[in-house]
Amino acid sequence: MQVTVQLARGALDDAMRASMELLAAAQRGGGKPAEAAAWLRIAEVHRHREMAAGGGGTSSTPEETLQAAERSAELYRGLTGPEADASQKGLGAALTESGRACLRLGRHRQAVSSATEAMAIFRPLDLLHRLTRALDLELEARRGLMEPMIGLQAANRELQLLRERQEAAGSEVSRGALQAEAEILEAIARTHGSLSEPLGAVRNGLLAADLRKEINDDEGETSALLLAADQQRNLGEMIDATETAERALALARKTGNARHEEEAAKVLSRVLSERGLNEQAPQRPQALQALETLVAAVKQRDGAAAKEAEQRLNSFGGLVTNKDIADHIVPLISRDPEAVKFLREELGWDVEKPYTQKQNGKEVRHLDFYLAHRMSGMGFGPQFKVCNFPVRVWGSAPVAVCVNQLPETEAWQMEMMFRPGFIDAGLQSGLVHAPFFD
């Protein structure tokens, strides 16, 4: 208990002292199960000190975590009789801890072995949350071994086994079982995403979100929705991705989870920017603020601040357009030509000094530009090509039928009365009226 309290406080050195005291007490007469449990707590504290390296306290290495976890597993395996049966949960936890340490050390095959053994222990004990954690470990190790398909098969097998146990029970499915099913579905979705299979990722992510909603797990539902929204974007389903990301953002604000809210705003902003709807993106004001910070740093010739602002600006992706940058940078270098040198040397920007004489130009409407070049042979289209020659229906009134399924395009094209894809398809299907079909 004292170790848990110290870990919660972030007092990692105190937690290590408390766990060593547990070990000493167990070795004096607490028995092998108590000693194995003490070594497991030591491994846990080592892991926390790994994660907090550089925070001012004593740091640990993955090797130290692995040694403590393996010692714990060794002691648990040495137990016999009733003690062995009672200590299976501890053995599974020690195997999971050692597997995670192996993963950090790059020993992926050993991590897979530990995860597989841990799952075999947790499965009959019906320790579903621990089972899904061990499954996550195997999936991550399989990706490191370039064997993601084997990991995907293992995850689907666990999902099938879980559903079979639920059907065999016959009674109402417990909250823990639904949560475990959602966790496995999310693991499957992440694996599909790593395999560049967004369709499978979206399907499993949305199933997980539905299960999370059923058990009123708002934070879990938010995570699943964000996973699905990102993969919907990869599929090109931009409207669905927008709706899913908006649901995730609303849930994040409801739960007050700042990390989820920031992530949801980022996903939604990215989708909207790719749809040409930058002004509606929730992170648009932050992106413009980052651009203004960059301009201020350039004015002050502060290289460190400029690089930091540029890095933050890049994190917003397409939320800041080239026009936005030009609107802020061109006036600056027009008034301060020496800023060009600073941008080149500090940020590596390829910026030319502005012309001193006035430049005359004329903006051409997108519609005029498209129609002019489409008819004059620039080859801007077609976006849609028919697969078969048009068929002439004999009679005095020829009929042309065309079915168009076009992807969402830039905002200026969406606002046109006739989108380019429809024009292209119409031109081609209209060949049915051509005289050489008579």
TrEMBL record:
Gene3D superfamilies: Tetratricopeptide repeat domain
InterPro entries: TPR-like_helical_dom_sf
Record's protein name: Uncharacterized protein
Organism whose genome encodes this protein: Effrenium voratum
